[in-house]
Amino acid sequence: MDIHPITAQSFALIDREIGPHAWSEQEYAIIRRAIHTTADFELKDLFHFSPGAIQAGITALRQNIPVIVDVQMVAVGIASTLAKAGKPKPYCALDYPGEGPTQTAGGMLTLSGTYPHGLFVIGNAPTALLALVEQIQAGNVRPALVIGVPVGFVAVEEAKQALAALATPQIQIQGRKGGSTIAAAIVNALLHLAFVD
Length: 197
What we know:
Elements: H1 5-18, H2 25-38, E1 47-49, H3 53-62, E2 67-69, H4 72-84, E3 91-92, H5 103-114, E4 119-122, H6 126-137, E5 145-148, H7 156-164, E6 170-173, H8 180-195
Parallel strand pairs: 2-3, 2-4, 4-5, 5-6
Antiparallel strand pairs: 1-6
Helix pairs in contact: 1-2, 2-8, 3-8, 4-8, 5-6, 6-7
């Protein structure tokens, strides 16, 4: 999984603009890829990594743990990188109907019941994240990792705060920012860490 020359040039520009920092090499690889995807340097102050979260994600990907996403945009954003690493396609909540306050929440409940130890990626729907958090709290699901970066205004911060209160390995963007492109960037960064670095 070689890095395209334009991406490498972009990374160099980001490195110069950020300058010295206190993140670990792996944390910075994820933060830099998210900034590269969005051109939003404010993200550097919003990332939260729980202890051991990055290694948990790398291990899960190396062990072919199922990747469960909330929406198709996240699935599309990681499909080619997963394929290059020889990994199966992600499961998308919208493709698995279930009971819930929204379609994504219902699908997340269905998939979390089927793959309780999966790597869960929520880039759009806070209701999906809240549904997953409730299953974790109930002891029904023990994710390998949760990437919780939904975006927006309604229930977004509530969902992220609920996730933050759990001992579950997690990577999140605090506050209202996030989105499917950032979720995909985080997964792609983890794939590069798992199979290149």
